[in-house]
Amino acid sequence: MRVVVNAAMSADGKISSRERTQIAISGPEDFDRVDELRAASDAVMVGVGTVLADDPSLTLDSEQRRTDRVGNGDPSNPARVIADSRIRTPPDATILDDAAPTYLLVSEAAPTDFMEEMEDAGATVIAAGDDRVDLPSAFEQLEADGIDQLMVEGGGELIFSLFAADLVDECSVFVGPKIIGGRDAPTLADGDGFTEDFPALSLKAVERLDEGVLLQWDVP
Ligand SMILES: NC(=O)C1=CN([C@@H]2O[C@H](COP(=O)(O)OP(=O)(O)OC[C@H]3O[C@@H](n4cnc5c(N)ncnc54)[C@H](OP(=O)(O)O)[C@@H]3O)[C@@H](O)[C@H]2O)C=CC1
Ligand SMILES: Nc1nc(O)c(N)c(N[C@@H]2O[C@H](COP(=O)(O)O)[C@@H](O)[C@H]2O)n1
């Protein structure tokens, strides 16, 4: 499975403010590129922190792209994937609507009644890991279900874990014309951070977009 990380950060490297509310860092050109990347992916993933902060839909904005996917024999929207060890996703979260299939990656510590509630809401629950989602194992199960390209939008905790598990193939970051600041504001990769063996990136493309810059790296 190809794993493509895509996010937007401020000029000072923040993906949100310390209040963890959704901030539009991308401009219209970048949001359109994100929609195109979603359309080219089998599934779009975020961590439960992003679900709680943003209540995203993770679906396509463009009607034409939905029509094109159906013409190619795909569902109109890519599937949605949430890493949520103990099921903190609220039952009324937008990602549980019927606009696209949703996979909830949970751990064995997730309460059984919550798992049933999510399945009743239409989600496919995949359990992997004792206390926290074991991403390599969960990804094997997604791949077995036909997900060949997974786009990961964030947030910083999930992205760090993906780099730590050596699961990222490509990383695209839009750097927007804002300073957000704040030592507690989330960055592209949070978690515990690396102190050695820093993942190395190979620069693939640099492009001016909106009033910012799109940077694209391969992760060898
Ligand atoms: N500018 C941008 O492009 C984007 C910005 N954001 C912003 O990011 C912020 C949210 O980021 P953040 O708080 O880091 O949350 P994340 O979306 O990264 O979710 C993190 C949570 O995912 C769960 N999780 C389950 N398994 C794992 C695992 N193996 N590794 C890591 N996490 C796991 C954990 O909760 P548990 O232990 O309960 O399972 C963890 O706390 C919001 O402010 C949002 O607006 C988000 C996406 C894109
Ligand atoms: N690419 C990008 N640029 C920004 O400026 C952003 N704030 C985000 N946020 C991500 O998009 C999700 C919202 O998606 P929907 O519009 O609800 O489908 C949000 O949850 C973040 O993952 N991304």
Automatic annotation (TrEMBL):
> Which pathway features in its UniProt record?
Cofactor biosynthesis; riboflavin biosynthesis
GO function terms (MF aspect): oxidoreductase activity
Chain positions covered by the region annotation Disordered: 57-81
Catalytic activities: 2,5-diamino-6-(1-D-ribitylamino)pyrimidin-4(3H)-one 5'-phosphate + NADP(+) = 2,5-diamino-6-(1-D-ribosylamino)pyrimidin-4(3H)-one 5'-phosphate + NADPH + H(+); 2,5-diamino-6-(1-D-ribitylamino)pyrimidin-4(3H)-one 5'-phosphate + NAD(+) = 2,5-diamino-6-(1-D-ribosylamino)pyrimidin-4(3H)-one 5'-phosphate + NADH + H(+)
> What are the Basic and acidic residues biased-composition ranges?
62-71
A Pfam family per the record:
RibD_C
| Biological processes annotated in GO | riboflavin biosynthetic process
Question: Bacterial bifunctional deaminase-reductase C-terminal domain spans which residues?
Answer: 3-215
Quote the subunit structure annotation.
Answer: Homodimer.
Q: Which family does it belong to?
A: Belongs to the HTP reductase family.
**NCBIfam families recorded for this chain?**
rib_reduct_arch, ribD_Cterm
Which PANTHER family does the entry link to? Answer: 2,5-DIAMINO-6-RIBOSYLAMINO-4(3H)-PYRIMIDINONE 5'-PHOSPHATE REDUCTASE, DIHYDROFOLATE REDUCTASE FAMILY PROTEIN (AFU_ORTHOLOGUE AFUA_8G06820)
Q: What is this protein called?
A: 2,5-diamino-6-(ribosylamino)-4(3H)-pyrimidinone 5'-phosphate reductase
Species name for this entry?
Answer: Halorientalis brevis
